Amino acid sequence: MRRGRELGAVGAGGDLFADGALGSRTAHVSQAYEDGDGCGHGYLSAAQVRDHLLDCAAHGMQGGFHAIGDAAISTVLDGFAAAARTLGTERLRAARHRVEHAEIMNKRLIAGFVEFGIVASMQPAFDRLWGGTGRMYESRLGLDRSLESNPMGAMHGVGVSLAFGSDSPVTPLDPWGSVRAAAAHCNPAQRMSVRAAFAAHTRGGWRAVHLDNEGVLALGAPATFAVWSTPAGVERGLPVLLAEDPENRGPADPTPLPVCRRTVLRGDVIYEEGSS
After folding, report:
1. Domain assignments of the chain as residue spans, ordered by start
2. Got the DSSP string for 20-80?
3. Integer CA distances (angstroms), 84 to 32, 41, 119, 124, 161, in order
4. 259-265, strands of its sheet edge to edge
5. What is the pTM of this model?
6. CATH architecture of the domain covering 2-215
7. What CA–CA distance (Å, rounded) separates 230 from 64?
8. What percent of the chain has pLDDT above 70?
9. Residue 238's beta-bridge partner residues?
């Protein structure tokens, strides 16, 4: 941990595996898979999670865990509770520790994220590609559990800090597609506004690493931005991403997405459409 700090790392455990993946039936779930034997695999104990968090605290680092299934996430939260008995809850919250994926959640687990200030680093494209009737989540979990997966709307609604990404190369780099996927979740009860999803995909990632002034366009802020064309138009300062007809909103929404024309990093143009 000390060496990581010396090298300038802001976190330790970017993908410290608490379990596997749903596709391979190795995500650790509390109920057996519908299309296979067993409940997957847990690779960490609550004591190991606790010790990692204590070590992070000793070196001023942020901890991170890969946890997909509800059983794995429960183990991670048990480790947080054990660490809180030594460090106190507020010190854990201040560190903004992160859980990557957080796909299979329930109200108790969501409450744990709120209690310990855990950042949920999530991938809306997972629901777009694998959620809904007849897709991978239903095959693995059954329809009811599949509709409860990736509950971004519920988590946002109770104040969980969200940071959206692609998990590339698992899913493509497609930021506006991810924003739309969060706003057009396969389960309408889990949808969030385009504005909230945009914030999670911009400021959310920066806030996850304690850079609260990044990810915005403002006087005095770094000039880091992208220029997009918006074939479907603009509404209230953001591109139109959803079909006008609510019946067409969902993973197959036909609305054309914005196209990047230029990218600027701290004042320097690093991409210009048409330039070599």
Report:
1. 2-215
2. --TTTT-S--SS--TTSSS---B---HHHHHHHHHHHHHTT-EEEEEE-SHHHHHHHHHHH
3. 31, 25, 16, 30, 19
4. 225-229, 259-265, 268-272
5. 0.93
6. Alpha-Beta Barrel (3.20)
7. 36
8. 96
9. 235
